[in-house]
Amino acid sequence: MRHPAFISALVAALALGACTGKDEETVDRTIKDLNVIDEANLNDVMLTVADADEAVNYFSRAVAGNPDRIDLRRGLAQSLVRSGRNTEAVAAWTRVAAMPGATASDKVDLADALIRTGSWSRAEKTLAAVPPTHETFKRYRLAAMVADANEEWDKADDFYETAIGLTTRPAGVMNNWGYSLLSRGDYARAERLFSDAIRQDASMFTAKNNLVMARGAQRNYALPVVPMSQTERAQLLHTMALSAVKQGDVKTGEGLLREAISTHPQHFEDAVRALRALETG
């Protein structure tokens, strides 16, 4: 992928390539200047729209040639996270956070990578080292997750609430907070938060599924009135059926499974298998 300015400069550089001597030096300087001009754009492309593995390869080569460039090391660390190579990402972010010019955001990104590898204790220590003046959505979202892992419920609730106030797209953190409440057995509050998440993002199926689980835990087996496709409706009926069985309402569960099977536009193997298991005891 090349921008028009990049292509024009490249053509000019190649035109100079027919010369020799000092003109060759001019070509080298032109290409070097060209790289500097276009590098920022190319880095942005690699971080946003490029294939994650391609981005890792690109930034790995860039870091090998410029090991003291913190911006390139950040790009590598971010690309490793995108590609799911979280153990390598921890090492990359650790290096970035220790470099001159490292910021509080780098420490937060390190904590994020640590959480992805299950290193909760180290993530907590990393977040504790972030200055209190660094008040960002990501910092408080991660702090809420760490508090959840420590079963420090009051702290988790405070951090989730703060995080929601720091973003214009709170659906994801609302869903996470709701799931935290669901795991604690606070089903009514969890139900409200899942509903809020769906109002913010009607496409979030995870929140819809969690909402059904919260209702089922309260023995409310009516599907919520939320936007859903026919396939989603069948999947939610399946979830509701399993919740009913878990509560001991087996007959209700069987009925919900039959409804899920008839609702799904295709063969619904999971629901069929669950119904057969119930029917055979």
Automatic annotation (TrEMBL):
The record, for SMART domains, names: TPR
Pfam families tied to this protein: TPR_16, TPR_19
- Name the SUPFAM superfamilies for this protein: TPR-like
The record, for Gene3D superfamilies, names: Tetratricopeptide repeat domain
Top-rank taxon: Bacteria
Q: What is the name listed in the Swiss-Prot or TrEMBL entry for this protein?
A: Tetratricopeptide repeat protein
Q: Which species is this UniProt entry from?
A: Pukyongiella litopenaei
